[in-house]
Design goal:
The longest helix has 21 residues. The chain has a six-stranded antiparallel beta sheet. It has a five-stranded antiparallel beta sheet with strand order 8-7-11-10-9. The chain is of the alpha+beta class. The radius of gyration is 19 Å and the shape is globular. Helix 2 runs antiparallel to helix 4. The protein has two domains: 139 residues, Beta-Lactamase (2-Layer Sandwich); 98 residues, PAS domain (Beta-Lactamase, 2-Layer Sandwich), CATH 3.30.450. Helix content is 32%, strand content 28%. It comes from Phytohabitans flavus. InterPro entries: H_kinase_PdtaS_GAF_sf, PdtaS_GAF. This is Histidine kinase PdtaS GAF domain-containing protein. Pfam families: GAF_PdtaS (PF12282).
Amino acid sequence: MSTLRDLVEEHTSLGSEDIDHLHRLAGDWQLLSDLSFADLLLWVPVNGDESFLCVAQVRPTTAPTAYQDDQVSRTVGGPEVAHLTIAYRQGRIWREGDPVWYGDTPARHEAIPVRLRDADGEPGGVIAVVGRDTNLSTARTPSQLELNYLTTADDLAQMMADGTFPPMSHRIETTSAPRVGDGLIRLDASGKVTYASPNAQSAFRRLGLPSHLVGEDLAALFARLADDPLEGTDASARVLAALGGEAPSRKEIEARGATVLTRALPLKPAGVPIGGWCWCAT
């Protein structure tokens, strides 16, 4: 099967930096798919922008897929790609339109433009489009956890359109990183916890936190709970780095005989620093 790089090099004129950015995205988008409860398809324009070629695909682990068949290497055009064309030409997220049907499966289409920023941090043109397609067959009123997942997913989608997700400095993790279902923590711009999923709360109880996470300063909490003061300082610094717009690598925290794997990333949709998010897994 052709790889993302093979398909892009064969069918487009995108340069190596553009392709590297698409690889970073495809290496980190399982989280976005799971947060969105949706399939993500990476499309590049061919034949001008009259048709689009799917060069990568990921299915959610948190919801049913909208596609039973593999879409990679599929080229589509005409009315079927109208939403992709709008996102590509106008450089904005497309969310309009009625549900579509794939056989017996109703689905909602969205299209997110993908940008790459230059060395000075300035956004460039749109290089690809991510289709975010949600299977609506099991639609229901979302829980608080699901609403926080969706809110975080929308923030990351806007950052993708801005060219800030995934960040240029981001390294694709080569070993297992926290998964979306392990535990989600949202932070405001000051670093205070505004939401903690039940699994995140359980992880911090194992570290020795008897109270609820909401309202806690996460960086200060890491420093307070860690058995090793140096490790606590390092974990605290990574949270502060994420709040400052960086993308630090994952970190293990040890306390009271428990170990929690964490990863903090910034939230900066439309260039506005609104806080950060952190995964944690035991």
